[in-house]
Q: What sequence folds into this?
């Protein structure tokens, strides 16, 4: 079971400062203001679908996660993935 | 019999529109907007590569309406994805009706068609599991009034409409295409048994072609809201033109109308489709459904009523009888669906007891 | 020919019979009414607007009438009809002119989909437009009225229309709607400004409309590049303060104030991205109009587009 983007053609985004990103989902028609971490997850899933563990590893580096413990970090990533799922941007399959 | 209204000209022969004067366009835009057919006219012209020849001002109105219809199609797809998710575990295929079916089956009747609710039909025995699954996924009952709830559940062919708490979208879950109390009783089991999976889906179905036409006919001639009457007739016209390519369609249609006891609505549907929209109907077809024809006096009055009420509610399409015609048809539609004692009770209750919405 | 070419009685007669084809910005409205206060309001505030006389095509057909019911004898009302059909609940007859203004806004905001439409006041100076989106009560119209009386061109008091095809702003100069204390504030600020009669007890309190400056009406066909998105907020006693707003935040807030962002789908997202990318975005708090004029006078457009935007399909 892996996380993947709903559809690569359906998601557009823009950002001006890397801190916050605006994502548009052309399937739901909804626009979301996302944190840098959430954007990194989506950009990561653009490459390939991943399970939560692999995703956590990949993101830990990019987000310089040494400040938090592993457990906390993967808990946060899980939470984030569920949020993105609720928004209809990613799905689990 | 019917004056040459611009709206009918536009639907019958869109290619003739390019010679319209600006004041004619002005009137056509008003009529089409009232009939909710502006986007359809835009698409009819665009298919014929004639949109560019429409003067800029009216063209802009056509294009404005197209934006709405494009958004609409996107929203319908998304909504159906959500409904499929919600009903994933119920184990009953979702059978889409009317607008949602046309959109998902990519039928020409979907072009530029706007509608507010998604209609689905499920076996009566599955109603409560479907309702529960929808509630679990965020849809909630809209009619909180105990009378309305009981009215729907006792007499109607559908659950009270359910609205999604976040998206505000409405779904109507039917178990039949006419109320239990109506004089006609098309067998839902037969309709469901003949329903066909949509291309590329294993959980969504639509009615078979003949059944889709019959449902559209039933909907138009047993509906109490005729303000969308012309749009509904356009559905019928468009479905007939599209399905007439199927080799056995017309035979299937008349056989099926007999089988389901829907000769009368089919008779009217064909009569008015031909009359208003020049729908090509094979000559043998009208004879094949002659026993759906009412007696001459009834037919005379029905013609008088529908010839007015099917046109857009715009002053250019109205005469002194139009208002009365719409009123009579409201009572008629309610009458057709319910025996008389019940009718009195419902009208009485609606008039005097139901809380007024603010 | 402008409305001012008609005498009050000619105008009244036309409004009653065939109606007038009134040109506001790029729209033509066919307006009929028998209500005297509406005819007066048109004669006063729309004097400089052109009448379309030939080859009439109206974008919107509206009329203001009195409903035929018993109430007409003791509590007269007014109805707004669009294509001959009621759109809103009737209002007291006294509110007929404000109802016309609200109805005209409704006509545009529910139909015009070749533009991204934002609920905002828009003014222009030196070829660049400032969009001021704001919820009611933020003092956007007050600020707008002050600016257009101090050298800024009025583009619109209520509706920023941003053409999807090229991002240009299409002017729609119409009377500026003022509420409650703002009416007297602007009267004192610009004694020469022309106002419609005050109408009390509307849904928005007491309202009056200020006539759009003649120059802005003449130049209504000149489209403009947007350079600033400014969220005004009136705060009693506050020192005027212009604060940079992160563009992603501005994006979401403008979308929140848009009538059709969501309807436009991907087109809307792209138009909004371009708009925000071309604009400097600010929160603006103020209490004194003169301070606001000074700060607006010092606004400069960004040197070139930011181009920091990463806009892409994944």
A:
């Amino acid at each position: 079971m892996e996380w993947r983007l709903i559809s690569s053609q359906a998601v557009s985004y823009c950002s001006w400062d890397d801190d916050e990103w605006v994502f548009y989902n052309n399937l739901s028609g909804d626009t979301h203001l996302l944190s840098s971490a959430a954007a990194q997850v989506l950009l990561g899933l653009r490459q390939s679908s991943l399970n939560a563990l692999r995703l956590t590893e990949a993101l830990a580096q990019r987000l310089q996660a040494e400040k938090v413990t592993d457990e906390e970090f993967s808990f946060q990533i899980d939470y984030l993935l569920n949020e993105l799922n609720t928004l209809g941007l990613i799905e689990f399959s | 019999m019917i004056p040459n209204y611009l709206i009918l000209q536009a639907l019958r022969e869109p290619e003739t529109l390019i010679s319209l004067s600006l004041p004619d366009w002005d009137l056509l835009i008003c009529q089409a907007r009232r009939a909710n057919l502006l986007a359809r006219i835009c698409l009819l012209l665009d298919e014929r590569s004639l949109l560019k020849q429409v003067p800029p001002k009216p063209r802009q109105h056509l294009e404005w309406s197209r934006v709405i219809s494009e958004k609409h199609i996107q929203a319908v797809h998304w909504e159906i994805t959500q409904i499929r998710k919600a009903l994933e575990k119920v184990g009953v295929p979702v059978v889409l009706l009317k607008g949602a079916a046309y959109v998902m089956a990519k039928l020409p009747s979907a072009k530029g068609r706007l509608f507010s609710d998604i209609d689905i039909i499920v076996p009566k025995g599955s109603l409560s599991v479907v309702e529960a699954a929808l509630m679990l996924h965020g849809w909630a009952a809209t009619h909180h009034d105990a009378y309305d709830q009981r009215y729907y559940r006792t007499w109607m062919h559908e659950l009270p409409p359910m609205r999604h708490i976040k998206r505000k979208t409405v779904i109507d879950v039917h178990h039949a295409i006419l109320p239990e109390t109506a004089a006609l009783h098309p067998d839902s089991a037969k309709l469901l048994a003949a329903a066909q999976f949509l291309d590329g889906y294993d959980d969504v179905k639509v009615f078979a072609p003949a059944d889709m036409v019959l449902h559209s006919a039933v909907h138009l001639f047993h509906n109490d809201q005729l303000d969308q009457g012309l749009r509904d007739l356009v559905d019928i016209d468009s479905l007939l033109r599209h399905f007439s390519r199927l080799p056995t369609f017309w035979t299937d249609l008349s056989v099926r109308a007999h089988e389901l006891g829907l000769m009368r609505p089919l008779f009217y549907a064909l009569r008015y489709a031909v009359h208003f929209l020049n729908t090509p109907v094979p000559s043998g077809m009208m004879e094949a459904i002659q026993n759906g024809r009412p007696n001459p006096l009834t037919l005379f009055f029905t013609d008088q009523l529908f010839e007015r009420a099917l046109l857009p509610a715009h002053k250019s399409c109205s005469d002194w009888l139009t208002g009365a015609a719409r009123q009579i048809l409201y009572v008629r539609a309610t009458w057709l669906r319910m025996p008389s004692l019940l009718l009195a009770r419902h009208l009485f209750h609606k008039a005097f007891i139901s809380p007024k919405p603010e | 020919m402008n409305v001012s070419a008609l005498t009050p009685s000619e105008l009244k007669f036309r409004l009653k019979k065939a109606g007038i084809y009134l040109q506001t910005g790029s729209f033509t409205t066919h307006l009929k009414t028998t209500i005297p206060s509406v005819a007066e309001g048109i004669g006063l505030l729309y004097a400089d607007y052109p009448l379309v006389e030939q080859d009439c095509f109206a974008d919107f057909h509206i009329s203001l009438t009195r409903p035929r019911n018993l109430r007409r004898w003791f509590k007269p009302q007014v109805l707004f009809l669009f294509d001959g059909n009621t759109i809103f609940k009737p209002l007291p007859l006294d509110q007929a002119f404000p109802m016309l203004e609200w109805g005209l806004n409704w006509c545009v905001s529910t139909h015009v989909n070749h533009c991204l439409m934002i609920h905002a006041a828009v003014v222009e100076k030196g070829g660049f437009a400032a969009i001021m989106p704001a919820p009611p009560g933020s003092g956007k119209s007050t600020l707008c009225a002050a600016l257009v009386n101090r050298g800024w061109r009025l583009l619109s008091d209520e509706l920023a229309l941003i053409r999807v095809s090229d991002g240009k702003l299409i002017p729609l100069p119409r009377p500026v709607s003022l509420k409650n204390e703002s009416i007297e504030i602007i009267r004192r600020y610009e004694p020469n400004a022309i106002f419609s009669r005050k109408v009390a007890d509307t849904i928005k309190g007491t309202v009056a409309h200020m006539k759009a400056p003649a120059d802005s009406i003449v130049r209504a066909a000149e489209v403009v590049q947007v350079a600033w998105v400014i969220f005004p907020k009136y705060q009693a006693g506050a020192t005027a303060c212009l604060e940079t707003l992160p563009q992603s935040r501005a994006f979401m807030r403008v979308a929140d104030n848009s009538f059709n962002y969501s309807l436009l789908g991907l087109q809307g997202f792209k138009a909004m991205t371009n708009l925000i990318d071309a604009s400097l975005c600010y929160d603006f708090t103020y209490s004194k109009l003169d301070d606001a004029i000074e700060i607006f006078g010092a606004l400069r457009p960004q040197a070139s587009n930011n181009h920091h935007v990463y806009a892409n399909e994944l």
